[in-house]
Amino acid sequence: MDRRYPPYAKWLGSAFARTPQAPALTPVLTAALAATDRNIREHHLARAYETVATAHNRLGLTEPVDPATRPYHGRPFRVLHAERFAAALLDRITDPVVRGLPPIGAVDQFVDSTDVLGHPESAREATRATTALRRASDRPGGGPSGPTPPV
Asked: How far apart are CA 1 and CA 77, in angstroms?
């Protein structure tokens, strides 16, 4: 959001500390890490989620999205339901080529299997297969009914 990027992973904390959100987020994230009780940890994480959601709204990239956390379906956990923010951003894409791309990001965004995500080689294979299928669908004659490359 603030266009501040660590030069490499080792510097992530230092780069984060220089963002405008760090003064608001550092205390609640520190408290979440120090919490010894699930409810206290959840309280601090919810504040962090809502802080980031409010910052998203200030960017003006989308219509405002309610920044409040809410229950995770019927479970007793409060989450942001960040897919609401992703949908609002996707709604603003006007370029037909970009809009036509599948919404695929990191492997945990398109795979919902702890058996896969818990084993790095399985996660890498899922990523390779998805990338290969996407490339195949981009070729003339490709796609679900067209040729599929070996994966």
From this structure: 26
The pLDDT > 70 percentage for the chain reads: 89
Strand partners, 70: 79
State the Cα–Cα distance between residues 87 and 33, nearest whole angstrom. 30
Q: What is the pLDDT of residue 111?
A: 83
Calculate helix-pair angle for 38-59, 22-34, nearest 10 degrees.
160
Query: CA 144: distance to chain centroid?
Result: 27
- Chain segment 6-36, per-residue pLDDT in tens: 777 778 888 888 889 999 999 999 999 999 9
φ, ψ of residue 149 to 5 degrees: the values are -75, 155
Query: Cα(49)–Cα(42) distance, rounded to whole angstroms?
Result: 10
pLDDT in tens, 99-128: 887 766 778 777 888 888 888 889 889 888
What's the CA gap between 100 and 77, in Å, rounded? 34
Distance CA 147, CA 143 (A): 7
Which residues are registered as beta bridge partners of 79? Answer: 70
> 6 is written with which tokens?
């660590």
> Cα(149)–Cα(142) distance, rounded to whole angstroms?
9
- The whole-model pTM stands at 0.69
